């Protein structure tokens, strides 16, 4: 504990010294590069051309956190490259995704290297105005949950080695400011609730272990690259999800454990309603695994609070 207190004190001093040189504040962010899974993708396909449109294919039945971040809670005109892919894991060779066509974070970082690292026309980013956001792990933990051929702390450590090798690749291309998000309590999603309280509790423990390892690696990143980094934010999604789920009625969510099957593949309008269910916008879960845009909105707001330098549920790094 003492070591950590000393570390954060010295990092605090460091960041004061680095302010003018490299600290990226939210109000100066002009480029956002995003890596992740279905919680994060908007269907953008950079292989179809760097200028191909954001088709808005999200898992939230509306905008997702990236779109709220860059289009609602933005203080600047942000150019976003969302390379996320639905179903993504860190590396398909470590945790296979549900379909072989899914692009892992390793694949997404390869796309970054191929299309964006050279700072081409329409993506003339630089180290001081660009934020690299990574939200991954939901499917790494989820897809490997039933495996008996791994020892969990060790396997998650292998996952972290792979993830942070990708962060090193981004760093080598000039990335200096990072946003990491922890895995949310997907053990409270209908998909895992259905497997019974014991399985769900085990998964909650596994997510906590994954997140603890993520935290240690992000701290290592800030120590290792030290004053050469811009801003590094580790945002904890757990308190946001848990507070909303624990107080669902207060926040106007009609059901914290279930969803309405009629809506699970998306609805024609954001407030669509069928007989026997509340309007789709009043649910927390759209389907077995994905929260609605209302949740993404609250999450994005809290993330920008952290990025703007104010207390939110970020974990000190
Ligand atoms: C931008 O944000 C930083 C803190 O992140 C703050 O110090 C600065 O005053 C802000 N600039 C403007 C123009 O509001
Ligand atoms: C992305 O675009 C490329 C090139 O047009 C195409 O081959 C690929 O199938 C597309 N990927 C998806 C997921 O639509
Ligand atoms: C935020 O992004 C939206 C969508 O790109 C843009 O219309 C708006 O001007 C931006 N806000 C600011 C303050 O730049
Ligand atoms: C564990 O089993 C899964 C499912 O069969 C497989 O995909 C994975 O590669 C195995 N992992 C190890 C480390 O053996
Ligand atoms: C810390 O990060 C550096 C750079 O990614 C890496 O080489 C090193 O192995 C990491 N150390 C630990 C203990 O994770
Ligand atoms: C919430 O969803 C669960 C699981 O589908 C269901 O059993 C329960 O009746 C629902 N509760 C309400 C208030 O709709």
From TrEMBL:
InterPro entries: GDSL (IPR001087), GDSL_Est/Lipase (IPR051058), SGNH_hydro_sf (IPR036514). Residues 1-21 form the signal peptide. SUPFAM superfamilies: SGNH hydrolase (SSF52266). One of its GO terms (molecular function) is hydrolase activity, acting on ester bonds. Keywords: Hydrolase, Signal. This is Carbohydrate esterase family 16 protein.
């Amino acid at each position: 504990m003492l070591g950590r207190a000393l570390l954060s004190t010295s990092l605090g001093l460091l960041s004061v010294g680095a302010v003018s040189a490299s600290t990226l504040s939210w109000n100066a962010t002009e480029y956002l590069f995003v890596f992740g899974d279905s919680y994060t993708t908007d269907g953008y396909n950079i292989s179809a051309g760097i200028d191909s449109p954001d088709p808005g294919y999200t898992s939230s039945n509306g905008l997702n956190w990236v779109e709220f971040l860059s289009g609602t809670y933005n203080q600047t005109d942000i150019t976003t490259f969302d390379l996320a892919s639905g179903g993504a894991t860190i590396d398909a060779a470590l945790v296979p995704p549900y379909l072989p066509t899914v692009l892992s974070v390793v694949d997404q970082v390869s796309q970054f290297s191929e299309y964006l690292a050279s700072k081409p026309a329409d993506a003339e980013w630089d180290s001081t105005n660009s934020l690299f956001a990574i939200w991954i792990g939901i499917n790494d933990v989820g897809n490997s949950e039933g495996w008996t051929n791994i020892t969990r702390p060790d396997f998650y450590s292998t996952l972290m080695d792979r993830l942070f090798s990708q962060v090193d690749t981004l760093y080598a291309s000039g990335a200096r400011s990072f946003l990491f998000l922890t895995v949310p309590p997907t053990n409270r999603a209908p998909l895992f609730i259905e497997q019974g309280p014991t399985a769900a509790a085990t998964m909650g423990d596994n997510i906590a272990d994954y997140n603890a390892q993520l935290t240690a690696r992000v701290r290592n990143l800030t120590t290792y690259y030290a004053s050469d980094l811009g801003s590094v934010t580790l945002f904890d999604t757990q308190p946001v999800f848990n507070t909303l789920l624990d107080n669902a009625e207060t926040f106007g969510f009609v059901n914290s454990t279930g969803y309405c099957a009629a809506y699970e593949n998306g609805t024609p309008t954001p407030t669509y309603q069928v007989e026997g269910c509340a309007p789709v916008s009043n649910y927390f879960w759209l389907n077995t695994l994905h929260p609605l845009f209302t949740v993404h909105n609250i999450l994005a707001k809290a993330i920008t609070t952290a990025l703007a330098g104010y207390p939110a549920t970020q974990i000190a790094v």
